[in-house]
Design brief:
469 residues; alpha/beta; nine-stranded mixed beta sheet; 20 strands; 38% helix
Length: 469
């Protein structure tokens, strides 16, 4: 059934047309935006309600904006918020590794489902999801040497696909090659099977594609880059690599940039996640080759990783998107908080309050993210023909006062407290922070019991275990 959203303050995040307008949008039977307009919709359109086939959503003057796109996420970490609160990247990762080594496929299903429902409840409707690779590596950042640990069954990964799909999130599944964990032919075959499973297990409307989880940062030989590129070409997929995220062992990290370059990885289908500590030559090469960068402002601060100079990247011509990263290193999957942390730290670094504006950072977390992921034809803005993924945000509840600048009010003064509803394809998926999914009432209990049990198997009793029992 079609949906007519009206009496709205619409922020389309489109490069064409106004930055905002008071008006309406029409969602077609296919879940895509069929029309938009200023003012009140034509009476003949509204009259179709009386004949059935049209629902009306009067938002009462609230803001309607695109659902957020997280271009870098790890949904399986939803059960580990607050873990290792004073650790930098690698000690923090090791804490999670110890817990996840005690988990089974159904444990990560519920953790991923919980994380995906959390994203949707917070206005994030599309995500690039780095799945737990099912192979545990213990990595030494000083020697840059990986040590193979547990190899879990393939279901450890595919159940994560199921979790995101069952939550109703639009998702791009990122799969690690794990090329150093077994015979090359076997590893490549498993990878190909998982690419196929990504589309089979995710409803077509939710499936944004599969991708390589770039892992050369932690590899021991350049062959890893060559194999990743081979998989990109064979399956026609992208690659996003965590790269120079932390200052630990930075020279060794930077040396591996050449491995990707020599393998022919670079181009619009290749993204660098984080890219906090690049050299000038690396920035120039990324810009000239058409690669993109994905910025995790909250995560970089939480882990003390450093500051990603996205203004520098954009001035060099590099496309940039934005991600929320782990729930365990952002703790609150808050896209407004992520935008503000990024915006304010950038302004502070440049001692210039105009170097990044609200419209700039909003675009990074919506259309910009969709562009670097190659899915801007479907998501990221409220334009005719795109999927009708949007949030309803009431800047008056709680009241933010007079609106001096619509985009500034939305980005700087609003937040999760103002988020009233979230729609995916014109279908309500969350209201007042509560999921409409029939699985939502099970997810919290399953997550708590399963993560508590995993922690106990690790040898750690969580502080509220007795109280929650």
């Amino acid at each position: 059934m079609r949906l007519l959203v009206h009496n709205a303050l619409i922020i389309p995040v489109s490069d064409d047309g106004p930055s905002w307008f008071a008006g309406w949008l029409l969602v077609g039977d296919d879940g895509r935006i069929a029309a938009t307009g200023r003012g009140e919709p034509d009476a003949s359109l509204v009259a179709q309600k009386d004949r059935g086939g049209l629902r009306l959503l009067d938002v009462g003057g609230a803001i309607v904006a695109p659902g957020f796109v997280s271009a870098h996420s790890h949904l399986f970490t939803s059960g580990m918020r607050g873990i290792s609160p004073g650790s930098t990247l690698y000690p923090w990762v090791m804490s999670m590794v110890e817990v996840l080594d005690k988990c089974e496929p159904d444990d990560v299903y519920w953790s991923t489902l919980h994380g995906a429902l959390d994203f949707l409840a917070n206005g994030v409707t599309s995500a690039y999801n780095f799945m737990h690779p099912r192979v545990t590596w213990r990595y030494d950042p000083v020697t840059a040497s990986p040590l193979l640990g547990r190899v879990a069954p393939v279901e450890f990964a595919t159940r994560q696909m199921d979790g995101a799909a069952d939550a109703g999130l639009r998702v791009m599944n990122a799969i690690r090659l794990n090329d150093e964990a077994g015979p090359e032919e076997e590893v490549l075959g498993v990878f190909g099977d998982m690419v196929a499973e990504s589309s089979l297990r995710t409803p077509a409307a939710q499936h944004l594609g599969a991708s390589v989880m770039g892992a050369v940062q932690w590899a021991s030989a350049a062959r890893s880059a060559e194999l990743e590129v081979a998989m990109m070409r064979e399956h026609g997929i992208s690659n996003q690599a965590h790269f120079v995220e932390t200052a630990e062992g930075i020279e060794t990290q930077r040396e591996k940039f050449a491995w990707y370059d020599a393998a022919g990885a670079f181009g619009p289908s290749f993204l660098f996640g984080h890219f906090v500590h690049p050299t000038d030559a690396m920035v120039e090469r990324v810009a000239s080759s058409g690669c993109g960068v994905v910025w995790q402002a909250t995560s970089n601060g939480r882990l003390g990783s450093g500051f990603a100079d996205v203004v520098r990247f954009q001035r060099a011509g590099i496309p940039v998107g934005m991600g929320l990263d782990d729930q365990s290193c952002t703790d609150i999957s808050d896209p407004w908080g992520n935008m503000r942390i990024g915006l304010y730290t950038t302004r502070a670094m440049y001692t210039d309050a105009s170097v990044m504006m609200p419209a700039d950072v909003l675009r990074l977390h919506t259309l910009g993210s969709a562009e670097v992921l190659g899915v801007a034809d479907r998501v990221g803005s409220l334009e005719v023909g795109k999927l009708a993924d949007f949030v309803v945000v009431d800047h008056r509840a709680p009241d933010t006062g007079p609106v001096w600048d619509v985009l500034a009010t939305y980005v700087l003064a609003c937040g999760l407290r103002n988020l009233k509803q979230v729609y995916v394809g014109g279908v309500l998926v969350s209201e007042e922070g509560r999921s409409t999914s029939p699985l939502a009432h099970l997810a919290s209990g399953e997550l708590r019991s399963r993560m508590t049990a995993a922690a106990l198997r690790w040898g750690r009793e969580l502080p509220l275990t007795a109280l929650e029992a």
